[in-house]
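Researcher: Re-running this chain for the archive, since the previous output was lost when a drive failed. Same request as before.
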Amino acid sequence: MTIMLVEIYDAFKEAKVSDDTARKAAEAIAAYDDRFAKIDRHLMLMQWQLGAIAVLLLPSLWLLLRVASKVGALG
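Model: Regenerated structure tokens:
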């Protein structure tokens, strides 16, 4: 089932575009809108993943540097 933006369909109909063409154009625009929404969700997920990596990585890096400085590996 394809979602159609009613406002776009109505605008095409008001511009005297045929019913079939108006419907296909509105569905195509709705498909692009859906693709952008999916991209936004994926970007938000990536931001959360990067945040989680930073939360896990920074304490480990701090501990590694602390141990390395006590051992004398840093000079």
